[in-house]
Amino acid sequence: MSVPDAIPPSVAILGAGSMGGAILQGVVAAGGAREVVVTNRTAAKARALAGMPGVTSLALEDDPTANVRAAASADIVLVGVKPAMVPDLLREIAPALRAGAVVVSLAAGVTLATFARELGPDRAVVRSMPNTPALVGKAVTGLAPGDRVSATQRAQVRALFDTCGSVIEVPESGIDALSTISGSGPAYVFLLVEALTSAAEEKGFVREDARRMAEQTFIGAAALLEASGEDPAELRRRVTSPKGTTERAVTVLQEADLPRLFGRATDAALARARELAAGG
């Protein structure tokens, strides 16, 4: 869902890689910003984005001050560089930021406290955690606004991320936990598709057909879940005829205690997120 009227007229994306690029596509498609300035390290990457309507694409390779120029032009500044590069970038752009600008972190593991230390305690900062389906407009993005973010700024940032999927607001203490579900979640789904594909191959299907069956089953089931609005447990019950083949298969899966297995997996991811936040 997009709310382009709520997006401010100027947006900067510093480091328009895969995630920043996905958000860029969402904003441009929604027509929500009059001006978007993006930066990349290389001229080749900058050229690839230069043809998008309303987008000014800058390369650090050509202009070492590109990040400062972009940040100075925007009401919302998205920081999409690698986590280790964030502190240096923040120190570089801090003097150039507009008085009312809000800075949004796309960097995993970089806390609001880090942004406050480098930008000053009065700067409006939002920590975000999108996931890779942003590339197809189906992201789940967690947002954790800092104390200095106004209601208007909060609405603007939310509208920005609404252009590439769904948004969930959480306190910063919930961002790492959210990352273990929606952030890492696509990998879990891809792993399940891999496993179902392998099961189909073991039953004699060629790789192409096995993959098509597995992928389209997941895609179709997800589309049905979204379109119906039904609880997934109810949809599962409708597919599972008493004493039928699906019931037998589901029984085997339930014996594996999937809730406990996913609990262990997400607990492991959360422990690692906390290690990374602590510099481990």
Automatic annotation (TrEMBL):
It catalyses: L-proline + NAD(+) = (S)-1-pyrroline-5-carboxylate + NADH + 2 H(+); L-proline + NADP(+) = (S)-1-pyrroline-5-carboxylate + NADPH + 2 H(+). It comes from the Bacteria. Coiled coil: none annotated. One of its GO terms (biological process) is L-proline biosynthetic process. It is an enzyme of class 1 (oxidoreductase). Residues 172-276 form the Pyrroline-5-carboxylate reductase dimerisation domain. Pathway: Amino-acid biosynthesis; L-proline biosynthesis; L-proline from L-glutamate 5-semialdehyde: step 1/1. GO terms for molecular function: pyrroline-5-carboxylate reductase activity. It is found in: Cytoplasm. Catalyzes the reduction of 1-pyrroline-5-carboxylate (PCA) to L-proline. Belongs to the pyrroline-5-carboxylate reductase family. NCBIfam families: proC. This is Pyrroline-5-carboxylate reductase. It comes from Microbacterium limosum. The lineage of its organism: Bacteria, Bacillati, Actinomycetota, Actinomycetes, Micrococcales.
